[in-house]
Specification:
14% strand, elongated, 222 residues
């Protein structure tokens, strides 16, 4: 097989493999799956009201990826909690929580899209009390609601969530489904692979020996 053909095939396999992993191809959650996740969260000792809220979220699954938009205000004097050193700061406690969450996210094709510290108070607040001051904001991508439930129903999550609760003075987190996302890694990877493969293909083509031209034959008429 020609080297140039192998190059394009390799890029295509890489792209398809990534998209297959990054995209939940199983469609919306079934009723049986929702019931299983609810049962698992109940067995973990979850709050019944929270479980019921998440159950409604799962039952309305579209099968698509979603993003969790988070506003975070840290507790200036967090309480001492089990598993942490006395007097740990809110950021240290959140670090303990994220030490569990980051691997759980990345292994399931979920990841932060952006994170940053707040540089000023809220510019526009309408109809919300106590929403002027925040410490940071984050946007986290989830592969699907199924993946989200896999994370929050894991007993290891329940064992770490109290660190987050102790670290926060207040927070707002809500899911959105993007209508337009030019930063989607699947699109970016496809463009990068296309550009790199085309450049390498052009270089291979330029280095390939030119095909010999047929030599003219001079025959005699008999």
């Amino acid at each position: 097989m020609l080297t140039r053909t192998k190059l394009w095939l390799f890029s295509g396999v890489v792209f398809v493999a990534f998209c297959s992993w990054y995209t939940d191809l199983r469609g919306p959650l079934s009723d049986e799956e929702v019931a299983a996740f609810v049962s698992r969260m109940s067995d973990n000792g979850g709050n019944p009201d929270v479980i019921a809220f998440i159950e409604h979220f799962a039952a309305a699954d579209s099968g698509r990826q979603f993003f969790m938009l988070n506003n975070v205000d840290y507790n200036e004097t967090p309480p001492d909690v089990a598993g942490a050193e006395p007097g740990e700061s809110a950021r240290a406690l959140m670090g303990r929580y994220m030490a569990h969450m980051v691997p759980a996210l990345l292994t399931r094709a979920c990841h932060p899209v952006l994170m940053g510290d707040v540089v000023y108070s809220s510019m526009d607040v309408i109809g919300i009390d106590n929403a002027e001051q925040w410490d940071m904001g984050a946007l986290v991508r989830y592969r699907s609601r199924r993946t989200f439930l896999e994370i929050v129903s894991n007993p290891a999550f329940a064992g770490q969530h109290h660190f987050k609760l102790a670290a926060l003075q207040k927070t707002i987190a809500y899911p959105i489904e993007a209508r337009f996302n030019p930063g989607d890694p699947r699109l970016l990877l496809g463009l990068i692979l296309l550009c790199v493969t085309a450049l390498l293909d052009g270089r291979l083509k330029s280095r390939a020996p030119a095909a010999p031209h047929p030599q003219p034959t001079h025959g005699r008429n008999s």
